[in-house]
Design goal:
Layout (H helix, E strand, L loop, with lengths): L10 H36 L6 H32 L1
Helix pairs in contact: 1-2
């Protein structure tokens, strides 16, 4: 790869690649947020505290938003894979 010229990538192809990279970035951010939330909740419970109902409601709402986003990403990935064949 190094030392040789890469084939010219068309503008449309660059946009598609950028969309894929951005989707991966969003997925990683979602995974990090989920892991951090699980970590924080586990530590709070370990200390003997119980999160208040409002904090749990917000966590549930955010989890549902994340699951919906992951579902959209899964669909987009399946569509991209299908388009290859």
């Amino acid at each position: 790869m190094f030392g040789r010229s890469l084939p010219r990538v068309e503008h449309e192809e660059k946009l598609e690649i950028l969309q894929l990279i951005e989707a991966h970035e969003r997925t990683l951010a979602i995974c990090r947020a989920c892991a951090q939330t699980a970590h924080d909740l586990a530590w709070e419970i370990k200390r003997g505290a119980m999160p208040d109902a409002e904090a749990l409601r917000k966590t549930i709402e955010e989890s549902e938003r994340v699951l919906a986003e992951l579902g959209r990403i899964e669909i987009a990935i399946a569509e991209m894979k299908a388009a290859l064949w």
